[in-house]
């Protein structure tokens, strides 16, 4: 542990930090393996969670999990813009609940080392499993502790495949003791179900928040009608499900309802897909990512503090990007894997102690009813979908913060008025849901 120990006083951070460890570890036990993932591990800040280890992954693919640590659920909250950064403690840090390790993955992201070599989720999962073996071999005192995999967006693909890979091996041999997963606003189904099918119903429902007029809605409706999805949600989202759901016969993959909706939405001043409530705040964030694009900047908080990089045991001269500008998957087709809802996720749910899927209702990058459609089209533990519509109130500090349903080992939560990054936009709700994942609050307490 000592080679990875991080100083409690870090450049750019104006307060004393608890114990943490950071650096890179290889993705296998092969001698001189040049492929390494970067991690930043934190000890629990409170009295609970000392027997739990949480992994957090951001998505992309190609985005750094330091985004999560520094702007969502870590002990350091970095805000403002690159030229006017604010840094303060995060009262809703998940380190108040357990050990947490933020891991940059796959190879090619952030401070990772080596050349990208994967073309599928199975390759990504094997890479992460190899890393976790090295991680627990290094931090032996964490072996056997309850492991929980969490993440958002494209990590909704990563995590089910990683869990499946772990369950394929003898966990006792490596000290990996997987208990469950939580995926936020996840990309775990097809683009059709996750984005295309529900987007017209989404903008119609949220037209006032998005400031859309009749002309804008009509433009998108015409495309949706031509594609056979103008009433897709109403026709297919049933509790219990009425059977498998499919693309309409007239669906043409060269025409996008989502693109049409994005074009009309972009005409609203200060609109962005990650949170549909218009906000004319920062143009770029302190980590260098304009929220309305996928173009990252080298002008960011981490690159402005080389001493901080040194303290994290990484190459000081390496420019860190919030999201890489090159592909982390080989080949022109990128990630070749089928989505988890069609492959590994049902089996993972059946093996887990707890599985939580949560989705912000103000997210347009990936849409909550898209997740709902995918769940209703999925069979696990002997039945298809939820038998009852998610309607149990999620309460935070006594106030309703969303609705949820739990059946057969799966909990699905719709977090009201949250954008894509739930821990950033609704930190109190994200914190309570993390307590629930870890078993620190009960299903009944979610309603209180």
Automatic annotation (TrEMBL):
What's a single GO MF annotation on this record?
diacylglycerol lipase activity
**SUPFAM superfamilies attached to this UniProt entry:** alpha/beta-Hydrolases
Its family remark reads:
Belongs to the peptidase S10 family.
Q: Does the keyword Membrane apply?
A: no
Keywords in alphabetical order, please. Answer: Carboxypeptidase, Glycoprotein, Hydrolase, Protease
EC main group? hydrolase
Task: Write out the GO biological process terms.
Answer: proteolysis
The reaction(s) catalysed by this protein are: a monoacylglycerol + H2O = glycerol + a fatty acid + H(+); a diacylglycerol + H2O = a monoacylglycerol + a fatty acid + H(+)
Any Pfam family: Peptidase_S10
User: Could you identify this protein by its name?
Assistant: Carboxypeptidase
InterPro entries in UniProt: AB_hydrolase_fold (IPR029058), Peptidase_S10 (IPR001563), Ser_caboxypep_his_AS (IPR033124), Ser_caboxypep_ser_AS (IPR018202)
Q: What is its EC number?
A: 3.4.16.-
